[in-house]
Amino acid sequence: MQTKSIEQIAAIEQVQELLSQQGYICDRALATVVFLSLKLGRPLFLEGEAGTGKTEIAKALAAALGRRLIRLQCYEGLDAASAVYEWNFAAQMIAIRTAEAAGSADRKALQAELFSDDYLVERPLLQAMRPDEHGAPVLLIDELDRTDEPFEAFLLEALSDFQVTIPELGTIQAPEPPIVVLTSNRTREVHDALKRRCLYHWVDYPDFQRELDILHARAPQASEQLSREIVAFVQSLRTEDLFKKPGVAETIDWANCLLALDAIALSPAVIADTLGAILKYQDDIARLHGSEAKRILDQARAGLDTA
C-alpha cells in the first residue's frame, strides 16, 4: 500500500480515503480537522470518551503517511525530564571508574564525554525533535488529562517552538515540526492555553452505520447479520445507565470474541458468556445478567427490523 506526503493531500475526501485504507473509518467533521491540522501544521487535540478511536487515528495517520509514530503515554506524576530525556547513569559510572583506573586526569574532557549523545537516553519528546529521513514523525501525546498542570505548562512551551532544552547540551529544535496528536478522556479539564494552540475536535460514539462500517473494516470475518446485531446491541447498551459505556474498541473486541466462539447470532446465553468483552465493571455486568440482556437484545432487534 502506497503512502502519501502531506503535499499530495488536496481534499478532505483524500484524508477519509487514506484513513479508510488503514481500517480507520471517520466522518467528514473529523477528516476536516485532520486535514486542517496537516495543512496548517497545528497540533490536533482530540477529546472524548475512552474507546472512541482517538489513539487509533494517530496510528492510522502515521501508517498512511509513512511516518514514524512516537507515543508519549501520559500518567500521574509525569514530568518534563521523563518526557524528554535522561542520562544513562550506569554507563556514566562505568566510564568514570574506567577513567580512574586508567589514571586519566583530564576532568573537562571526561565531563564532556559523559554528557554527550553517547550517554543520552532520548524520551518521546526529544525523539520527535530529531530529523527523520521519512519526514517529521507523528507524535502522539496520549491521555494528557492524566498529567498535572506543571507538565501542561511545559508542554505548551515545547509545542510553541518545537524545541527542548537540555542544560548540558543546549537547545534542540526540530528541523521540521512533528505532526502532533493529543488525546484526553476528559477525566479533568485541560487548560485553555494549551487547547488554544491546537485544533480541537470532540470524538463521539459513532452512529449505527459508521460503527457497522468500522466493524466491517476491523472484523471482516463476521457475517452481515452478526455484525448488525452486534452494533445494534452495543448502541442500545449505550442508552442504559452504565458506569462505563462500551466504546468502539469494545465493539471490535466483542466481535472477535464471538467469532472465536463460532457464534452466528446473538442470544441471551452467548451475551452472558461474553459480557466481559464489552463491559469492564462488575456492577454493569451484574445489571445485564438474566432478563436485562434479553430485553436489550429484543430492543436492538426491533430497531433493526424498523430500520
Condensed summary:
It is built from 15 helices and nine strands. With 307 residues, it is of the alpha/beta class.
Helices and strands, with pairings:
Layout: H1 12-21, H2 28-40, E1 44-48, H3 54-65, E2 69-73, H4 80-84, E3 85-87, H5 89-102, H6 107-114, E4 120-122, H7 124-129, E5 138-142, H8 149-161, E6 163-166, E7 170-173, E8 179-184, H9 192-196, E9 199-203, H10 208-218, H11 224-237, H12 248-260, H13 268-273, H14 282-287, H15 291-306
Parallel strand pairs: 1-8, 1-9, 2-5, 5-8
Antiparallel strand pairs: 3-4, 6-7
Helix pairs in contact: 1-2, 10-11, 10-12, 11-15
- What would the average pLDDT be, to the nearest integer? 91
Q: How many separate helices?
A: 15
The largest sheet is: 5 strands, parallel
In terms of per-residue confidence, which ranges show pLDDT below 50 for 5 or more consecutive residues?
Answer: none
Percent in helix: 40-55%
Under the CATH scheme, which class of the largest domain?
Alpha Beta
How are helices and strands ordered from N to C? HHEHEHEHHEHEHEEEHEHHHHHH
The name of the CATH topology of the largest domain is Rossmann fold
Number of strand elements: 9
Beta-strand percent range = 5-15%
Strand order, sheet with most strands: 2-5-8-1-9
CATH homologous group name of the largest domain: P-loop containing nucleotide triphosphate hydrolases
- The general outline is elongated
CATH architecture name of the largest domain: 3-Layer(aba) Sandwich
Structural class: alpha/beta
Tell me the radius of gyration: 24 Å
